[in-house]
Write a structure and sequence with these properties.
- By secondary structure, the chain is α+β, with helices and mostly antiparallel strands.
- The chain contains 9 helices and 8 strands.
- β2 and β3 form a beta hairpin.
- Bound molecules: zinc ion.
- The site of zinc ion has 8 residues, from loops.
Length: about 250
């Protein structure tokens, strides 16, 4: 469940990210009024098996049945975990088109929610992983392997901090560095870790250990890069940044 909005006194409008049909928004009638109908299982970030009908007339599909598969309830008992999950859910909700199957992104999201729920990996590290994999699967991975202009490889650069140009979507060597466009600087250490995450599988990527500086650097970079491509700053990200204490 990605999103839940009240609709009148009785109903809920719910956006699901489904394995088979991608993003779907359905109306759950009487879900607010009757606890019997859906037995209180329509909670954000939970994984459900759902049955819905599209009907003949125009309008939202109607949720008929829902059974709980994974509650992921520890996420909702922590404000910080809820804030991270809300940010990831908003990225999916804003980026994905309705009705388009996205199996790899579905699996990524469910895997990340499971890790967030299990409390074994730091939330910040999981968010680096989620954003890096999400943007890569969306075909917008940052170019971190070589200078975006002259294509010299990052390992061959002498500088310890490398310029990243947001408009070009990649790193620039000192010789090609831009003076005008929006940019930041990344240490070679975090560049290597992000490249490793981009190319490695999820199970291995979850074992990557970040220093506290690298965590901060990686998050600051991705939380700028991802909204830059989205074309707006998600509200959930602002909230996350307000409650997160470094
Ligand atoms: Zn260059």
């Amino acid at each position: 469940m990605l999103r839940k909005v009240d609709f009148g006194d009785y109903d809920l409008v719910i956006t699901f990210f489904t394995l088979q049909e991608g993003k779907i928004t359905a109306i759950a009638k009487s879900a607010k009024k009757s606890t019997k109908r859906f037995a209180g299982i329509l909670e954000l970030f939970s994984v459900l098996n759902v049955v819905y009908s599209t009907g003949r007339r125009k309008g939202l599909p109607v949720l008929q049945e829902a059974t709980l598969k994974y509650p992921f309830s520890s996420i909702r008992t922590s404000m910080l975990k809820t804030a991270y999950a809300s940010y990831w859910a908003q990225l999916i909700n804003e980026w994905m088109e309705s009705g388009q199957k996205q199996v790899e992104i579905y699996e990524l999201f469910q895997y990340m929610l499971r890790k967030l729920d299990s409390c074994q990996t730091s939330e910040a590290a999981l968010s680096i992983l989620f954003q890096m994999k999400f943007i890569t699967l969306s075909g917008l991975a940052p170019n971190l392997g070589q200078c975006s202009v002259c294509h010299i490889e990052v390992e061959k650069l002498k500088e310890t901090r490398v310029q990243f140009d947001f408009a070009k979507g990649g790193i620039l060597c000192d010789g090609c560095a831009s003076k005008t466009s929006r940019k930041t600087f990344l240490s070679k250490g975090i560049i290597k870790q992000l490249l490793w995450i981009e190319k490695g599988d999820l199970v291995k990527a979850v074992r990557v250990r970040f220093s506290s500086d690298a965590l901060k650097e990686g998050l600051e970079f991705l939380e700028t890069f991802v909204p830059y491509h989205l074309g707006k700053e998600p509200r959930s990200l602002k909230f996350l940044q307000q409650i997160r204490k470094w």
